[in-house]
Amino acid sequence: MGFFMSQSIDALSQVTQLQESITDGRIRQLERLGICRIAKVVQHMKDDIERVRPQLGSTSSCMQLICKSDEKHRLSILRLPSGTFPILECRNEKKTGAFKSGCILISGRDVYEPPYYILRTSIFKMDPHYAMKVDEAVRETKLLLQIEKWRDESPGEFEHVITTYFTCREEGGPLKAKFYWIQEVAAGDMLDLLNTEGFYFSAEQLLAITHQMLRALSALHKRGIIHQDIKPENILFRRSGDDIHALLADFGSAGPVEEVQEKSRHSTVGTPSYLDPDFLQEMDENKINPRTDSWALGLTLLKLALAALMPWEQGDPSGTTIVMRVRQLRQADIDALIETIPPEITQSPKGMEFVAILRALLSVSQNSRKSPHQVLHPEVRESTLPPQELSDTSSSCRLL
Question: Is 153's pLDDT higher than 90?
Answer without folding.
Answer: yes
